[in-house]
Design goal:
Elements (H helix, E strand, L loop, with lengths): L3 H11 L6 H42 L3 E4 L8 H8 L5 E16 L2 E10 L1 H6 L1 H4 L2 E4 L8 E5 H7 L6 E12 L2 E15 L4 H6 E5 H7 L8 E6 L5 H11 L5 E4 H44 L1 H9 L4 H32 L1 H12 L6 H4 L10 H28 L2 H5 L3
Parallel strand pairs: 3-8, 5-7
Antiparallel strand pairs: 1-9, 1-10, 2-3, 2-6, 2-9, 4-7, 5-8, 6-7
Length: 413
Amino acid sequence: MLSTFERMVAWRYLRSKKAEGFVSVIAGFSFTGIMLGVATLIIVMSVMNGFRAELFDRILGLNGHMNIYSQSGPLFDYAYVKDRVEPIDGIDMVVPMVESQGLISNKATASGVLVRGIEWKDFANRQIMRDSITEGDLANFQDTNVAIGHVLAKKLGLRVGDKFTLTSPQVKSTPFGSMPRQRSYTVAIIFDVGMYEYNSGFVFMPLSAAQTFFQMDGAVTALEVFLKDPDQLDQVRKAVELTVEGQAGVFDWRDLNESFFNALQVERNVMFLILTLIILVAAFNIISSMIMLVKDKGQDIAILRTMGASRGNMMRIFMLTGASIGIIGTLVGAALGITFALNIESIRQFLEGLTGTELFADEIYFLSQLPAVIDWGEVMAVIGMAFALSVLATVYPAWRAARLDPVEALRYE
């Protein structure tokens, strides 16, 4: 434990004096460096956690954890396969789906889209879709009434009740030759799921309408499988593969998105390493400032030693002096980083209003809002790492102070 004497002397050395002004400047830079390093690390890690969580939740909220598909075209006996798969333990629901590309046009404006046909009850059972409806009524999702994203609606100038033309890549024979299949549909729902990709490029329509339009009567493209617990994916996938063996193939969301999420994880680790270097540089500043302080206080150290202070006293005094800079900087930085992360979306909107620029374009980052999820375990790890670096940075200067010979220090005084 630190004695009152040690704390008093350490505090006196921390206070700025004219004679040690340069040492205080270096200590101030060390404090600022550690504070900004800790704050930046917490903010960046929280934002990257938020990105991963938001993308994960939205991708899996709009898409099944697994897909069952025919390896030779459309899946015709999907009702039989669904009845066999749905009772498997761990499966929440199995959704028949028709999916194909199309061209949506309104007046002189057109856009390529991905058309997905699902049944009304399956649309209603997806919380992310049910809660994202901004215009229209879920009850109207039937016949030729469809749901489109708000970005796509804005691009084509469509509102609820407006009609548009959908063109299929498939062709039909006419007296004038082969012509693309076209049909008019009515906008019944406009949604905003918070992801630009879906808001701008997806059209959801009733399953029967999609089967008719894409000439897949009695068949679907795939069966989407939603799990009760995504962590049981491997076990459930093995059970599904055994159940549908020889009838259909199975792939899960990792087969489509694994490289994407791996890239996010690698980026997150690299950012953690880079930002840790800021704290490390600040710790080296503590070393340099403490070495200079020991040099300037050589006579004081010698006098204290002759008055009875032990080497252990001197070691603890200078360790406390240097560590206080890092510890206070870490605590202030942690408070700043947590506050910033908790209010990051409000801060973003304020800065955009202040500068008149778009700092977070959803068409680039795929999300409509800047997400931040604070992992308290990570926060404690960052604080602990900064504490450890701050204390370690004081060991050598404090050892130098403890090893100082009082006779040599006072020889020419």
